[in-house]
Amino acid sequence: MPEAVITDVLLEVVRALLLLGVLGVLWRHGKSGRAVSAYHTGWRLILGGFGLMLLGSLLDVTDNFPALNPYVVIGDTETEAWLEKLVGYTGGSLLLFLGFRRWVPLMGKQRQRHQRLMDAIVRAQASFISNTEARQAFDELLGNVLDLTNSEYGFIGEVLYTAAGQPYLKTSAITNIAWNDATRAFYAAHTPQGMEFTNLNSLFGAAMTTGEPVIANDPDHDPRRGGLPAGHPPLTAFLGLPILLGRRMVGLVGVANRPGGYSQEEITFLEPLSGTIAQLIDARQATQAHLAINNTIKQLSLVASKTTNGVIITDVEGQIEWVNAGFERISGYTLAEVRGRKPGEVLQGPATDPATVAEIGRALGRRESCEAELVNYGKSGHHYWINIKIDPIRDDDGQLRGFMGIETDISPRKAAEASLAASAQHTQAVLDNVLDGIVTIDGQGMVDSFNRSAERIFGYVAGEVVGRNVSMLMPEPYRGEHDEYLRRYQTTGVARVIGIGREVRGRRKDGSLFPLDLAITEISRDGQPFYIGVVRDITERKRLDRLKKEFLSTVSHELRTPLTSIRGALGLMAGGAVGALPEQAEHLVGIALKNSEHLSQLVNDLLDMEKMAAGAMRFEMEALEIMPLVEEAVEVNRAYGEACKVSFHLASRLDEALVRVDGRRFLQVMANLLSNAAKFSREGEQVEISVSRRDAHVRVAVQDHGPGIPESFRKNIFKQFSQADASDTRQRGGTGLGLAITRKLVRHMGGRIGFESREGAGATFHVDLPLARPIDSNDPSATSD
Amino acid sequence: MSSLERILCVEDDPDIQEVIRLALETVGGFTVKLCASGREALAGMAGFRPDLVLLDVMMPGMDGPQTLAALRQQPEGAALPVIFMTAKVQPEEVAHLESLGVLGVIAKPFDPMALAQELRGHWRRLHGG
């Protein structure tokens, strides 16, 4: 082959290959749909242009190989060559020209559109960053998308999943296509937070379920359509574009009614948008979650800062992240000083109970809430009791985020408890050690408490008695009566036992009965009546009393017996029963007799005093007419008076007046007054006795005309062993006990005794006794004492 | 009205016996039999046939009340007036003695010169005097 031919051929081959290459690239580029639709006319023209050029190039090559000529359509002349070139390059160039003419502006427009899309995306991102409300960003973005796709309305939304895994749409931005008041109201109410659409049987539903873009340019006849609500603007075309983040569908863009419908071109065009929207949605979700947590923490912080309790927040390891002012106040540590450390390291010390700490640790290890009371140590080393409640904090996914502890300083309460416990202990110690038994009962007669002494006295252990009826401690018949008695007291307020110390009989566990001294007071506890009974076993006292009484009796008898002989013998001698005595002897016998009588009286008086002092004297009070008593007294003592050469005269009477007295003791009183009056009268004088009424009393007065009572003696007159003049004592007789005893007797009978006297003008002693009333069965003084 | 003439006295203390004898025989003019114990008194009842018995309370062996009870068993003593004499003069003791169905209780020490009078006084009251 000639060299020129080879060069020619080679050049042509190279050119052909180049063209092929370009075509290939263009084809692939078009196929990928990246820049422009491969089916666009301009693009086709360009392809066609290059195609023709390639053809021309190929024809040129075949020029050199005549053998291939038969296959060429055009002839072998210059015209042919001309035509080849025309077809090849001219035609190709023309096509290219035409193609570019269409393609370049389109590219420009496309690039413009693309730029506008990029701008929209950037703006959306900027808006998103600058606004906490993502809504505005999405709104703007939707507006731009509608614009750029030439759509009438649409939405941008998140794809969320129900608990069952079903996807549903929540709009972030949606065109307001409300067509009536109801829908307008609906839009107004729901647009801000996003509307939720769950109907998967729809065009957008199809996009959500498949995860693939959905184009429906004939919605009415599209099998995937779900139907539109009445009044909804007509839907002529629809494009649903799933927004993917990685492999996960996070959102959906839907646009509608582009004139001419939608195609892959729109899908391709919106691709950069898809990524951005995915990121925006993701960012917004993260922000919202973050916001939610922040809000929660903010709320918590607000609460925590305002509360006086201490709040500690730790991470999952238990290291302190945050404490509130309350904690700082309670512990003395600042947040800076404790951050990063564990509460156990900082706040616990020797007095902290390790068992409680272990218990808390176990609960936290199990990620459970717990509550405990324990001792904490503050910065200054002071320790205090806290009540702490600890809860685990979890985020929305249920993951453990940390722990929150709320502590309350309960030191004052603990101190009060300790003080109360100590006080109660003290009280109990007192109760336990007091000698008297203390039994408390409630309003129903049930024993409420039973102290140690009561246990000793009754022979029961407290546990055997508490909660049971107190009548178990009583013998019959009181046992059966007690409930009724208690009930009657509570309804009528009439008490027989309350407040009075009286002697009752108790019943021990072994059944034995014994005398008790009982005093009862009523208290109120929580508005309920309770009765406190103080009991004293007086068995011993009574035994001693009996011994004493027996002793008194015995002594009395033993003293009186020899006195009888003495008195008797002397009396007989003095009375002349055994003949006349020599004057001196008679005189001495007289002395002895007088003194033996004195001794006798002294014995009587001493025994009386002793009995009254021991409370052993018994009075039998009755309502008696006063006059017969007085008359009897005068009669009985007349002989004594005559012996003193003094007469008794009843000066005034008070008939039919009843007094409450012990008759025998009254006579004793009168004997004393009358004998005193006689003793201190001069011979031949008269003693007047008068009986008169004074208010509610009867006054019996005994008046003598003797020397009277000296001023200096007046205040001592009722005292024991006092007589105006010691020298007088033997002369006048008397033990010096008479008036003391008399006053005691009068008082015991509820009366009063007094006197009037002027030295040198005699004395009048008067006794006032209360007039008797009819005996009242409820009157405690009516019973014998 | 029958008169009081014969008095049986039961008293264990010899000194007091002597005083009583003088008080009742010499001063009072009664016919007196003195016994030192309840048993002696019971034995002497039939023989002496007293109008009144003056009975001490505190005696060894049979005391006053026991003697009284035994006396009442006897036909002669069933309705015989008895007066106790005692140094135990506590009111309840006196009351107890009085409740045993006696004419009275005389306290010791007593006035020997007035004893006879006192007995006559009781006698008179008994017989509606």
Characteristic terms for this protein:
heterodimer; A: 785 residues; six-stranded antiparallel sheet; 22 helices; rod-shaped; B: 129 residues; alpha/beta; 5 helices; 19% strand
Give a nutshell description of this structure.
The complex is a heterodimer of chains A (785) and B (129). Chain A has 785 residues and is α+β, with helices and mostly antiparallel strands.
Itemize the secondary structure elements and their pairings.
The complex is a heterodimer of chains A (785) and B (129).
Chain A: H1 3-32, H2 41-63, H3 78-130, H4 134-149, E1 153-161, E2 167-174, H5 181-190, E3 196-197, H6 203-210, E4 214-216, E5 238-245, E6 248-256, H7 264-269, H8 271-306, E7 310-315, E8 320-323, H9 325-331, H10 335-338, H11 343-347, H12 354-365, E9 370-377, E10 383-394, E11 400-409, H13 411-433, E12 437-442, E13 447-450, H14 452-458, H15 462-465, H16 478-492, E14 502-507, E15 513-525, E16 528-537, H17 539-574, H18 583-613, E17 622-625, H19 626-643, E18 647-652, E19 658-661, H20 663-679, E20 686-694, E21 697-704, H21 726-732, H22 738-748, E22 752-757, E23 763-770
Parallel strand pairs in A: 18-20
Antiparallel strand pairs in A: 1-2, 1-6, 2-3, 4-5, 5-6, 7-8, 7-11, 9-10, 10-11, 12-13, 12-16, 14-15, 15-16, 17-19, 20-21, 21-23, 22-23
Helix pairs in contact in A: 1-2, 2-3, 3-4, 3-8, 17-18, 18-22, 19-20, 20-22
Chain B: E1 6-10, H1 14-27, E2 31-35, H2 38-48, E3 52-56, H3 64-73, E4 82-86, H4 91-98, E5 104-107, H5 112-126
Parallel strand pairs in B: 1-2, 1-3, 3-4, 4-5
Helix pairs in contact in B: 1-5, 2-3
Q: Which radius of gyration of chain A do the C-alpha atoms yield?
A: 65 Å
Overall, the morphology of chain B is globular
Content-based structural category of chain A: alpha+beta
The general outline of chain A is rod-shaped
β-strand number of chain A: 23
Helical fraction of chain A equals 40-55%
Q: Order of strands side by side in the largest beta sheet of chain A?
A: 3-2-1-6-5-4
* Tally of DSSP helical segments of chain A: 22
Q: Strands across the major sheet of chain B, in which order?
A: 2-1-3-4-5
DSSP strand content of chain A? 15-25%
How many beta-strand segments of chain B?
5
Largest sheet of chain B: 5 strands, parallel
* Helix/strand/pairing category of chain B: alpha/beta
Strand/helix succession of chain B: EHEHEHEHEH
Poorly predicted regions of chain B are none
Q: What is the subunit arrangement here?
A: heterodimer
Largest interface: A-B, 27 and 25 residues
Specify the helix fraction band of chain B. 40-55%
Describe the sheet with the most strands of chain A.
6 strands, antiparallel
Q: Separation of termini of chain A?
A: 169 Å
